[in-house]
Design goal:
Elements (H helix, E strand, L loop, with lengths): L6 E7 L5 E7 H11 L2 E6 L4 E4 L20 H4 L5 H14 L3 E8 L5 E12 L5 E10 L1 H23 L3 E6 L4 E4 L1 H7 L3 H4 L4 H5 L2 H15 L4 E9 L5 E12 L5 E10 L1 H62 L6 H34 L1
Antiparallel strand pairs: 1-2, 3-4, 3-7, 5-6, 6-7, 8-9, 8-12, 10-11, 11-12
Length: about 375
Amino acid sequence: MAKAHNFTSLSLTSHKGIIIKMKIDNSDIQHLLDISGEFFILTDAAGIIQYSSRMHSQFKLYFKESPKVGDLLSEIVLSDRQAVMQLIIHDVCESQAMFKTEAEFIDAQGNVVFLSVTFQPRLNEQGVVEQIYVLMQDISQQKIFERKLSAQAKSISNLIELAHAVIIGIDTRGYITDWNTHSARLTGYTKNEAYTKKFKDLLLFDTYKQVFEAEMVKAAEGNSAQNFEVMVKCKSGLILTVLVNITPRTNAGGQVIGSVLVGHDVTELVQHRKTLEEKVHERNRELMQALKNEREMLDLKKRFTALASKELYEPLVQLHTDVELTVTQLPQLSRNELKTRILHLEKRINQLLLMVDGLLRYTNKSLKK
């Protein structure tokens, strides 16, 4: 006995506009839909179901009862979607164009389910909508992934906006495209004031523009610029020192479409560094002066020792000899002779005192220099 087959007639329009009519075994359609995980409904222009494939559990969330041949599609969907379904079928027939919508549900386990519903009209030879193909797809994974990406992008955007650092986006022409809160707070320029300006014209002095443009050329070639300082002029007239990094910004194809500038205000650090450098230079000067004075003292001591040896030693030896001679001859000396010798010794002692005083004065004068 021959096996009975159920066929569904489909008319497809090729890319050249040729209408192709075919009959497909319903079991083959169901097999393909089972593989793809999709649910298919065929209705007439009024929305009455002519065919429906086997429905997976997630698609039941869209209906209040399982679709059957002869049911009106707008009556078996959830109550809050019935009016919308009537409107969609009407608009698809009127516009003769495909329509796509999405719906979000919560299943019994509390999982979020996203369904995509596509309505594709089929025209007859007279150009009138004869049937509507309704294809439902479970896009939950795609939507969850999109939401995660969106949340991640929002998180990154908030991080950039609220970061305690200057973060500025610049396009290939040098115009500002991104301007975070810290940039506005530091420079005094609002987003609206910054977005219409080139970065170099808004913030940089002429002496830094050439350096900045050279780094931007490197960024356009895909090279990053690391840690260089620029002087920035604020709206209030305040001048700041900013440590800058420039990173190329690329599109999905890897083409450079601009740059991201990340900067930190290092004005206080630079001033502190200069103060420390000045202190170090001052200490070095003091140390060099102390070493110089020490060398001069050593030289002075050497000169004083040499001078004392030359100018004082011999007179003192001679004086000592004369005193010993006088003591030895004391019994033979008369009173007048003794007095004469004592006066002579006193005169020579005074001469030595004057010589010592002169040496001390010279030493003090050298120390003051």
